[in-house]
C-alpha cells in the first residue's frame, strides 16, 4: 500500500506521519524513515528529532536497508526535486510495496507550480490525503491551501513562509 500526504506549511504533514509510524510500530511493523539530506526545518522539530524507535536515514542508505523493513516513510519529498535527486527518489520509491510519502504540493515561489514529484508518483498511490493549514491566509484570514515564500531569494529551507488562500496565492 502506498499513501501520499500533502498540504501547505503548518498543516501537520509530519505530525500525521509520526502518528502513523507510532501506530504501525505498536503493531510490530518495522518502519524506516527517510529524510532529504539537506532538510532543515525553520521552526518546530523535524521527523529526525521526534521518532524514537525508528531509524532515520538518507536516500543513499535506502538500497542497503530495503530488505529489513516492512514500511518506509519518506518525509519532505519535494526537496528531492529541489536538490536534483528526483530520479534517485523515484528509484527508492519503486523499491517498496508499502510506503508513505509526504511533502509540499506546490513550489513556495509559485503556488501554480506543482512539484513534479507528485505527477510522477500519484498514479502509484492507493490513498492520498490533502491537509489544510492550521494558520489562516495572511491576506484575508480564510482557509489556507498554499504556502508562499516571503522573500524573493531562492532559498528553499530555513526561510520564511506565509500561508495563503486560493485567491491570494
Ligand atoms: Zn486570502
Name a few traits of the molecule:
single chain, 169 residues, alpha/beta, Rossmann fold, six-stranded parallel β-sheet, two-stranded antiparallel ribbon, 10 strands, 25% helix, binds zinc ion
Plain-language structure description:
The protein is α/β, with parallel strands linked by helices and 169 residues long. It has a single domain, classed as 3-Layer(aba) Sandwich (Rossmann fold), CATH 3.40.50.300. The protein is built from 6 helices and 10 strands; from the N terminus they run βαβαβαβααβββαβββ. The strands form 3 sheets. Strands 3-2-4-5-1-8 form a 6-stranded parallel β-sheet, with helices on one face. A two-stranded antiparallel ribbon has the order 6-7. A two-stranded antiparallel ribbon has the order 9-10. Strand 2, helix 2 and strand 3 (56-57) form a beta-alpha-beta unit. The longest helix has 14 residues, at 13-26. The radius of gyration is 16 Å and the shape is globular. The mean pLDDT is 86. The chain binds zinc ion (ZN). Zinc ion is lined by residues 137, 139-140, 142, 164-165, 167-168.
Secondary structure layout:
Elements (H helix, E strand, L loop, with lengths): L1 E5 L6 H14 L4 E4 L12 H4 L5 E2 L4 H4 L5 E4 L3 H5 L3 H9 L4 E5 L2 E2 L2 E5 L1 H6 L5 E4 L15 E4 L11 E4 L5
Parallel strand pairs: 1-5, 1-8, 2-3, 2-4, 4-5
Antiparallel strand pairs: 6-7, 9-10
Bound molecules: zinc ion.
The site of zinc ion has 8 residues, from loops.
Amino acid at each position: 500500500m502506498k499513501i501520499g500526504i500533502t498540504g501547505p506549511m503548518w498543516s501537520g504533514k509530519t505530525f500525521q506521519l509520526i502518528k502513523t509510524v507510532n501506530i504501525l510500530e505498536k503493531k510490530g511493523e518495522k518502519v524506516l524513515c527517510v529524510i532529504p539530506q539537506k532538510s532543515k526545518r525553520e521552526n518546530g522539530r523535524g521527523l529526525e528529532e521526534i521518532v524514537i524507535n525508528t531509524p532515520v536515514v538518507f536516500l543513499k542508505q535506502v538500497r542497503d536497508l530495503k530488505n529489513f523493513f516492512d514500511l518506509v516513510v519518506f518525509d519532505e519529498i519535494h526537496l528531492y526535486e529541489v536538490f536534483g535527486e528526483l530520479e534517485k527518489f523515484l528509484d527508492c520509491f519503486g523499491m517498496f510495496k508499502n510506503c508513505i510519502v509526504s511533502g509540499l504540493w506546490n513550489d513556495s515561489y509559485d503556488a501554480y507550480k506543482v512539484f513534479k514529484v507528485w505527477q510522477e508518483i500519484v498514479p502509484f498511490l492507493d490513498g492520498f490525503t490533502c491537509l489544510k493549514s492550521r494558520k489562516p491566509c495572511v491576506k484575508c484570514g480564510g482557509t489556507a491551501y498554499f504556502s508562499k515564500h516571503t522573500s524573493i531569494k531562492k532559498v528553499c529551507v530555513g526561510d520564511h513562509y506565509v500561508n495563503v488562500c486560493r485567491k491570494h496565492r
